[in-house]
Design a protein that fits this description.
The chain is built from two helices and 15 strands. With 297 residues, the protein is mostly beta strands. A twelve-stranded antiparallel barrel has the order 2-3-4-5-7-8-9-10-11-13-14-15. The chain has a two-stranded antiparallel sheet with strand order 1-6. Strand 4 and strand 5 form a beta hairpin. The longest helix has 35 residues. It is globular.
Length: 297
């Protein structure tokens, strides 16, 4: 009987010791896991806050100012007569500023119709990896444009509200790998004034933007925005293909496009060239960032 009792006590001791050891091991693993595996946000889905003419899901850092200079030349199909379009130039310059890592504001001015534009860009969902990760990013954008060019005669029939257009946009995007990123951006545009009485004030479109990394500092990018509803008569879907070239604090975007306009209202309603018929314009975007407000150490 004593031998049986001693044996039971030994078994119980082994079981209890094993349970304690297992529990301690589990606690150590939990502590180790919480320290070694952390949730991290995915960055550099695109090298610029714009794909080419559309917003990208990328953001400026807090306190960073992005000075942007955009050029679109004439169509190349006239050949040497106008130096493959280089005799003509349209331009937009703008200033975007990061109020936070998920909040950017911007203003700009284009010589096409002498328009001013501004936007607010917010990211409520940021793609991440690790515990509690999210597989994609969601970005919300609201913006407007103001025409400053004189109206045709008689000017007294026009009011200030006729100069305004507004747009709302949602971007849903994902960086699938270090080499490839893709986004969809449905967009709604409302114009207070349209050219013809039968033209639609509201336009719906679905943008598609993609980036394929080629080398450490270069990437191939595509920016396509087909019009789904309310198309302005005589216009085409804006399409642009090009290359991002990163050089330190600069990002050059060299591209070919059929769009002349460089804000949302302009490229959705004023693109009359047909990309597939060779009515293509060479252009470039130059982005230079400055850190205005440094992070507190």
């Amino acid at each position: 009987m004593k031998k049986i009792l001693v044996g039971c006590l030994l078994v119980l001791a082994v079981v209890l010791t094993g349970n304690v050891t297992y529990a301690q091991d589990q606690d150590l693993l939990k502590e180790l896991g919480s320290d070694s595996v952390k949730k991290e946000h995915v960055k550099n889905a695109f090298k610029s806050s714009r794909v080419i003419h559309s917003h990208s899901m990328e953001f400026l850092g807090k306190g960073v100012l992005d000075v942007r200079i955009l050029h679109r030349f004439g169509t190349v199909d006239n050949g040497i007569k106008d130096l493959f379009g280089l005799d003509e130039a349209n331009m937009r310059f703008g200033f975007d500023y990061g109020l936070g890592n998920n909040l950017t504001v911007g203003i700009g001015r284009s010589n096409l119709n002498k328009e001013l534009d501004g936007f607010i860009k917010f990211r409520p969902v940021w793609q991440s990896q690790g515990p509690g990760s999210v597989p994609f990013s969601v970005v919300l954008i609201t913006g407007m444009s103001l025409r400053t060019q004189d109206f045709p005669e008689p000017q007294d029939v026009y009011k200030f509200k006729h100069r305004l257009a507004f747009y709302q946009e949602v971007i849903i995007g994902r960086k699938f790998s270090e080499a490839f990123s893709l986004q969809l951006n449905p967009i709604y545009l409302h114009r207070n004034l349209v050219p013809g009485t039968n033209d639609d004030n509201n336009i719906w479109a679905l943008g598609v933007g993609g980036r394929m990394k080629l080398t450490k500092r270069t990437a191939f990018v595509v920016d396509y925005t087909p019009i789904l509803s309310g198309r302005q008569p005589g216009t085409k879907d804006p399409l642009a293909v090009g290359f991002d070239i990163e050089t330190g604090g600069h990002v050059f975007q060299l591209h070919f496009t059929n769009a002349t306009g460089m804000n949302e209202k302009a490229f959705l309603t004023s693109t009359t060239s047909d990309f597939w018929k060779g009515e293509i314009r060479f252009g470039f975007n130059l982005s230079r960032v400055f850190t205005i407000r440094k992070k507190k150490e």
